[in-house]
Amino acid sequence: MTSGRISKMAGLLLGCAAFAFATGASAETTLKVFVTSQGQPAIWRTLLDQYEARNPGIKVSIELGGTTSDMQAQYLNTVLTAKDSSLDVLMLDVIRPAQFAAAGWTSPIASDMSSYLRAYAEANTVDGKVVALPAFADSMFLYYRKDLLDKYGLQPPKTWDELADAAKKVADGEKNPNLQGLSFQGKAIEGAVCTFLVPYWSQGKVVTKDGKLDFDREAATKSLALWKGFADSGVAKKNIAEVATDDTRKEFQAGNVLFAVNWGYAWAMSQGAESAVVGKVGVARLPAIKGGEQATCLGGWEWGVSAFSKNQEEAKKLVAYLSSPEVSKYMAINGSLLPTYGNLYKDADVTKAVPWFADAQPIVETAKPRPVTPRYNEVSEAIRTTVNAVLAGATTPADGAAQIEARLKRIIR
Amino acid sequence: MTTTSTVKNGAGRATARRALLSRWSDPDDTTLAVILLAPAAILLSVMIVYPVSRLIYTSFLDLSLTSGLPARFAGLANFRQMPDDPVFWQATWNTVLITLITVPGSLLVGFALALLANLPFQVKWPVRLSLLIPWALPLSFAGLIFGWFFHSEYGVVNDVLNRIGLPSVIWFNSPRLAFAAICLAIIWKASSFMAMIILAGLQTIPRSLYEAADVDGAGRVRQFFEITLPLLKPTIVVALIFRTITALQTFDIPYMMTGGGPGTETATLAMYIHQNTVSFLDLGYGSALAVVMFGLSMLVTALYLRMIRGNGAAS
After folding, report:
1. Residue B218 within any structural domain of the chain
2. A348-379: pLDDT as tens digits
3. CA torsion sign, A313 to A317 to A320 to A322?
4. Which of B85, B87, B258, B280 to mutate to test the interface with A (most CBs of A within 10 A)?
């Protein structure tokens, strides 16, 4: 062949290759999902692999971030303020959708929310629009050592006073200086907001009503005094102001705690390979203040679609899949993550894997959400720093309650 | 007529082109100055002038990302909010206190370390290396490490206290003790920086001065106050300027050690700015706070510069 012909053929081949490459590349969409490192990313990965297999041309990658809810929020705040399009799907703490929607960071999703648990249908609907779909449910429970309670003939306590008495009885009997009566979160993390709210709600009080502040200072003082009392009397350890969620989990797992206030994830870990208390753990509702109702804090995480994603349709389809009953059941069985559909709690496969989920349903359904407001971060900061200050002994419960009220008055008008 | 003017214009353009080319290939002083300064000027404008002007502009806006409302001009409203904000006063006071404690503290410790390092060692590099390491360690790592040191249960400090017979102290429960722990960490970190600068200064003092002083019968202490200190004064002032401005911007170490706790007792101004902008998304108020910190830094720099100029005029 002549050189002219050769170069023409080479040009044609290159052109074909380039065209094939270009069309090939444009046919494949890559979605990036932001998952908190505490949210069982390994198990979500297997589900995403299944999704990729069912949807050729879609690749999903996970970006891990944020060991705590607050760290994750700071990262997302920075990325989304910059209108960055690198993240398509976001896993959000249940307290975030209101703020993210107000800032215009999530795309509305058309979805029927009636089959989800009511609390999550409400948490994810802002101004009548659905801004996220539930990933998994969660609330705070009372974990207890079945074996120790049985040894002393005690039942799981229904009031905080009963808990204090039970702790004292076991402490006197065991004479083990390493055994803590009660472990809860006193560090200034997001969970400390729940630490404050649980006894506060137990007295039948609310923080906001119809968007306005409805704060009861006396009930707040009583709530703070309850926790401080545990630290002072020795039921909880003196440096409880240093304890975060995972510290409680680790210490309970190591067998050094009688009662622990913690979220649902602690169950799977306590029955895992590294636990010293396999088979010795019971889960119950959190106790009530004497004369009040047993109340607990609503948790759980949601899937949102970033408003700046370049793949809106594909991201919404992925989110619909990730919040489907099939996925919820899989996560319940394999990750011990509480289902977001009411009918799954009594499902035979689920209860075989996680027996106490059957009793968990009424607890999750009556769990209360933290104040829903776009300025939630400021509310959270006001409450958790005060809880930390009171437990550290830097502020009295009465002053702490006054401080929370003063700061909330400036945030929630 | 048209042809002549066209020719004239063509000739004029050619001359202009030639003039421009000669300016670029053989520039005069002004052009050279512009060319050489241009990259730095562009860099400064992009990295400093533009962000700072934008910051000052935002501080006059009512801009909160969670309100969903667009930015609204609000004049001095953000600045008027500050005096009523108890956390602002606490954070500013904490920042000033940290500056007042850690600047002299790190100067003293750094000076001592520099004098130590200046002794005639056979092998110099281990000493230099140990001086360098605290400075090279990232601030957040230092904060994390010291946070663990002072942990009431798992920390080294309490372990040592227990071994010598003293009871454990819950460092982060007490605002004073937490503050002391933070200052300790900052002094440890900053003194290595001061030591390096002062060491460089010490090395420039000629040995002959000390030898002459020995001959004249001056003791070690007198030599220190009459030779070392006066000659080191410019070096010390430079080190102080750097250290003071950094101290006013303290963020990493308290953030990692206490997060501002207990409560908000150990929060600094930089931490409060970070919280308002990144967590609360109240960009207007956060910017106003940043402008206040900027003003504070400028004031301190002006004071130091006046001190230097004063010294210069006197000598």
Report:
1. yes
2. 999 998 888 988 999 999 999 999 888 999 99
3. negative
4. B280
